[in-house]
Amino acid sequence: MTDPNAHVLEEARQYGETLSDRELIRIVERYHRPEGPGISHETIEAYDRAVADDAALPFGEGQLRSTIEEGLSTDEGWHDAEAYYEIGDGRVSLFPRRWHDRLGDSDDIREYVAVIGDDTASADTEPDAPKGGIGTGVPEPLLLDAIVVIDGVERGDAKERLERRRRDGELVQDADQHPDARIYLSEDVAGMRDDWLDY
What we know:
The chain is α+β, with helices and mostly antiparallel strands. The chain has 2 domains: 6-98, no CATH class; 105-198, Orthogonal Bundle (Arc Repressor Mutant, subunit A), CATH 1.10.10. Helices cover 52% and strands 11% of the residues. The chain has 9 helices and 7 strands, in the order ααβααβββααβααββα. The strands form 2 sheets. The chain has a 4-stranded mixed sheet. A hairpin with a 2-residue loop joins strand 3 and strand 4. Helix 1 packs antiparallel against helix 2 and helix 2 (21-31) packs parallel to helix 7. The radius of gyration is 18 Å and the shape is globular.
């Protein structure tokens, strides 16, 4: 039987009534990691019971489990931002199996931008792809969440890696201060500028 991690529940309580299903799963994926990537169905059941019993959290009995089941995708690549993904061995993640397979052993943030950017852009541009792609570049919150969950680092450390690569000129961020500002590989931005000049 799986016991919920006390740190997960403590962090979840900091959100209180504003805690969403996806935010809870992100916290569980980050801190409940005894068996590798993703979360087993047994672990989901354990947290489903724990959060339903916690008066500080906005979950009813069975709510977490049913939300995941309703949004579960077996796609190996990106489907959309509301999906939960089967990643093998009966495990579920916020991110698709392809990302775990390609990025699980990497701490290179440029590789994260390349893999996530290619996968999410294809969901936008392929005629038969599911809806929900996010266009060119990678939104900063998505990038940071993926690094936190897949690489198992603190968000502040992921943000520091991003800032270092930006300072070194290897990554470029949208000029505005939008919270979902997109991150690009520097060579892709150079290509986009050339396209605009040709236009």
